[in-house]
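Action item from last meeting closed. Structure (271 res):
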């Protein structure tokens, strides 16, 4: 469905999915190579890396370039009694995908690009993976901490019902969605139904100038930069190249950093 308007691209992706791509397929993707110094470089497009560290670096760099006040959104965690500090530290070290989509710390500015990290209202399209831009940060005058963050989503249907029903003129006039911190419960022992839980209150988004491949499942992108440069990883994991490429809606949506090689493309032999 994602590539329904570019059938040759859909067929190329199927070959990448089974690691049966041809040399022409590799050259086809490589034809989308671009240099960051190029005048047409899409610096605000979502960047995808195989690893976390270059994605985090890119996010930090882009945030730094915004000439606006920086806010630190620190999660408020409430720990259950009778749980060791060691167990708590172990939970806090987990990736966001294992903490109900809520980060411990978020740094944010007005005009920053962000992505929702959990489903807020599926019917209103406020879903995990929605991309948008922070338009305004409302701050508590007493403690100077953000209370509401207004986001203009790329998908104009995201939050449309909430916007229509809002009594806030700023929300309606600017078609922005007010996002507040949410409460999530994080099991200390994920596989045990009776596990004690940490209660976390945090804003449900993350910076979205760049993400790692394992965080892009489900996204549909009309403009994306994909890096084939590896820093620490020796090679790409099963399906990583396919997942990154298949987020794009067409070949023209893709911009490539580095060089794609046949050995980068691997299919899991179990499937």
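Sequence:
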């Amino acid at each position: 469905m994602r590539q329904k308007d570019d059938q040759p691209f859909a067929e190329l992706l199927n070959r990448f999915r089974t690691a049966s791509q041809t040399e022409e397929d590799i050259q086809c993707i490589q034809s989308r190579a671009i240099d960051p110094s190029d005048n047409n470089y899409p610096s605000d497009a979502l960047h995808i890396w195989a690893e976390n560290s270059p994605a985090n670096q890119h996010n930090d760099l882009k945030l730094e370039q915004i000439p606006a006040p920086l806010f630190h959104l620190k999660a408020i965690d409430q720990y259950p009694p009778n749980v060791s500090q060691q167990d708590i530290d172990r939970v806090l070290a987990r990736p966001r995908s294992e903490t109900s989509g809520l980060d411990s710390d978020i740094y944010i500015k007005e005009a920053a690009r962000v992505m929702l990290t959990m489903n807020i209202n599926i019917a209103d399209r406020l879903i995990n993976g929605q991309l948008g831009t922070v338009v305004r940060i409302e701050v508590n005058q007493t403690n100077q901490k953000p209370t509401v963050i207004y986001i203009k989503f790329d998908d104009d249907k995201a939050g449309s019902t909430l916007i229509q029903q809002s009594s806030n003129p700023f929300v309606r006039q600017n078609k922005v969605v007010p996002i507040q911190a949410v409460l999530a419960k994080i099991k200390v022992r994920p596989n045990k139904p009776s596990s004690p839980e940490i209660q976390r209150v945090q804003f449900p988004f993350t910076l979205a100038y760049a993400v790692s491949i394992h965080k892009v499942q489900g996204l549909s992108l009309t403009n994306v930069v994909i890096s084939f440069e590896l820093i620490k990883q020796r090679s790409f994991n099963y399906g990583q190249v396919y997942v990154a490429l298949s987020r794009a809606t067409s070949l023209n949506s893709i911009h490539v950093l580095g060089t794609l090689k046949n050995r980068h493309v691997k299919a899991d032999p179990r499937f």
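Note appended to the action item: Helices lie at 7-17, 23-30, 52-64, 85-92, 160-165, 169-174, 240-245.
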